[in-house]
Amino acid sequence: MVRAPCCDKMGLKKGPWTHEEDQILISYIQKHGHENWRALPKQAGLLRCGKSCRLRWINYLRPDIKRGSFSLEEEETIIQLHEMLGNRWSAIAAKLPGRTDNEIKNVWHTHLKKRLKQYQTKPDNTKKNLKSKTKIKSEPSTTSHSESDEVPSSSSEVVSSIIDGSDHREDNNMDTWECLVEIDESFWSDALSSDESQVPSLSTDNIMEPNYTFGENLDDSMEFWYDLFIKAGGSEQGFITQF
DNA sequence: AAACCACCCAACCGCCTGCGT
DNA sequence: CACGCAGGCGGTTGGGTGGTT
């Protein structure tokens, strides 16, 4: 089928919003809400398309928007959620009150991605040929890696060191604690579901075997999956049931 | 002071999905 | 079932801004 243009651009304004336009949009939404974005600009007297209005409201004018730079905790949360969810910015934004998907996306591309890239770069980059739907840096097992003081003991420690740039683990043997896995999309959506009765569809079939370097025995692997499961919002009972 | 450069972020674009008909 | 519309999402862009030479 032939798709109609997202909006009729004839005579509609584009580009940065003026203060006046903002005021019109705010007062209209305060009075009438925003049940129909397409009709809204016409009714409000704005020469914008509905999409543009929606974006402006969602990303900038909404009263509950938190302005200003991201805190360390927020950055840490973004990194952790990105590990779990990938580029699902709206899902990540849902876990950060007052932050928009657009804002998080920007922060990721301008700050966090670079830091992670730096962090993940190592002279002998054996992972460059690996492909994955979801890249996950596993939390090191305290049992399997306790022999090395150089290996951080928790994911938050890892993430903090990435954020503050103090991490220098490329000097160490990252292969012992890093792995890349492929996970069924439904795993995350199920795990994040508020419905307790839903059990995330974990399957070891989804593990990309050649890349699966984490854990030297089954217990370590289970610990890894358990941790991811809980991080993704799954319950302990759900994990037990699944396995 | 001017030119250049790099970075940031608001906004746009196109695709996807859900829903009503 | 097919179609069309509206909303939502992620990727990308380009103007603005601040830093450097």
From TrEMBL:
Signal peptide, first to last residue: none
Q: Which InterPro entries match?
A: Homeodomain-like_sf, Myb_dom, Myb_TF_plants, SANT/Myb
User: Which SMART domains does UniProt cross-reference here?
Assistant: SANT
Q: Which residues form the HTH myb-type domain?
A: 9-61, 62-116
What PROSITE patterns does the record tag this protein with?
A: HTH_MYB, MYB_LIKE
One Pfam family in the UniProt entry: Myb_DNA-binding
Q: Where is the composition biased (Low complexity)?
A: 151-164
Question: What GO CC terms are in its UniProt record?
Answer: nucleus
Main localisation: nucleus
Residues forming the Myb-like domain are 9-61, 62-112
Which residues lie within the region annotated Disordered? 115-167
**Keywords on record:** DNA-binding, Nucleus, Repeat, Transcription, Transcription regulation
What GO molecular functions are on record for this protein?
DNA binding
Q: Where in the cell is it found?
A: Nucleus
According to UniProt, the name of this protein is Uncharacterized protein
Q: Which organism is it from?
A: Gossypium gossypioides
Organism placement in taxonomy = Eukaryota, Viridiplantae, Streptophyta, Embryophyta, Tracheophyta
